[in-house]
Design brief:
Length: about 260
């Protein structure tokens, strides 16, 4: 198409003035006369007449051309094919799985068997090399409960089932360091005994001797030796006692060591 034809068409289009009354009249006739309708089904068939007229009039006025009205009467133009709309699913917001903190297991503490309580005998077990009973005599040696890390007292309990006409008692305290006598005593009358204390070599010796003509009655009696020692817990495994007695024409002797405080 040359420039001349294009110019003429453009001038004709600009000079054209649509006659609104004539267009509406033709539309009314087309709607009223079924013979003028195309046999091809169109969207206009399902619309009410007033709606069709209004739509065509609006289209005619908007385009300013007769061709739009004629196209509407002859059948609605086929709408352009549109690409099918795909619904894109929105991503599902996945909330993080709430993980509950693990419940701490109940821990079971095993304490083991209860310590066995060993009931101590009413009297300490004598050393293996001791003889605590002989004839009418019975004896027991122990460290006094009031002994400390500086001072101690060794006790001898002596029992007799018969009166004693002769008795000699000795307490031997090993020199473990700083052992010095601080005194001695007995439950029997002091006037009945001759008491001597000797520090001889590695032993501190306490000795009680019954005076001639005196008698030790039946029953329980105690003899004690007191002493200082080097600071600390003093071991008594080398300490010992011995008692020799005579009664009714027979003699008896006992000996042994000193047990820890009860």
């Amino acid at each position: 198409m040359n420039e001349e034809i294009r110019r003429q068409l453009r001038e004709a289009a600009e000079a054209h003035e649509p006659n609104r009354a004539r267009i509406l009249a033709r539309v009314e006739r087309g709607v009223a006369d079924p013979s003028l309708r195309p046999r091809t089904p169109s969207i206009a068939r399902s619309w009410p007449r007033a709606a069709v007229v209004a739509v065509i009039a609006a289209a005619t006025l908007a385009t300013g051309g007769l061709a739009a009205a004629v196209a509407a009467i002859g059948g609605a133009p086929t709408p352009p094919a549109t690409a099918p709309t795909h619904t894109v699913p929105s991503p599902t917001a996945t909330s993080p799985t709430a993980t509950s903190a693990p419940t701490p297991s109940t821990r079971t503490t095993t304490t083991g068997p209860a310590p066995t309580t060993t009931s101590r005998s009413a009297r300490p077990t004598p050393p293996a090399d001791s003889r605590v009973k002989d004839g009418p005599l019975w004896s027991e040696g122990s460290l006094d409960v009031h002994s400390s890390i500086y001072w101690a007292q060794s006790n001898l309990i002596l029992k007799t089932t018969e009166p004693l006409t002769s008795l000699t008692v000795e307490l031997r305290i090993a020199q473990t360091g700083g052992v010095r006598s601080t005194g001695n005593w007995q439950t029997l009358p002091s006037d009945d005994f001759t008491v001597t204390v000797q520090e001889s070599g590695d032993v501190l010796l306490y000795r009680w001797a019954l005076k001639p003509g005196r008698t030790v009655p039946t029953g329980q009696h105690q003899f004690a030796g007191q002493y200082n020692h080097a600071t600390g817990i003093r071991k008594v495994k080398h300490d010992s006692y011995r008692a020799h007695a005579q009664s009714s024409g027979r003699s008896a002797a006992v000996w042994g060591g000193f047990a820890p405080p009860r």
